[in-house]
Model the fold of this input.
Amino acid sequence: YVAAEHDVAVTVGENATVTRDLKVIKASSLLTGQVSDPAGTGVLHAFVGVSKTSFSGAFEAGTGTFESFVAGAETDAQGFYKIALPAGTYFVKTFIPPELSLISAREEKVTLAEGQTLTLNLKLRTADLKITGKVFVNGGSAVAESFLWGWAEQGGYQETMSRSDGSYV
Done:
């Protein structure tokens, strides 16, 4: 089963008890596969996320968020994942630890029928470009330890922190 609604807000006062029923949907279909590096070796701790919108769709809608997140799983030591889902059409994305110095696999659109098991192998990519620069406050002092991130519409995400002199790669 997966949640039918996400981010359910519940306010609980001091010394109070609140009951809130949550709706779930039967997840009778299965998405499985392996996340591998460019050489074909399975990758541990990659996160495979499934949502109702594409990466580009979330930003084009002006939200920059992924309210349509449905389910996800982290890969095992051999890079395998398994996600139970209701039948439907989804966008599958990978998120990887930045220290791997790789780029996420291209985002994939999949459609699962009721009770279907679909295998989707995802291959991480080698970075073929880099963005460099410096972070400044009001055009003056360099900013250390700023969080920077970027994404590509075809799937791909990378993040870094600026160095003590404000530089980043």
In short: The mean pLDDT is 87. The first strand starts at residue 2 and ends at 3. The two ends are 41 Å apart (CA to CA).
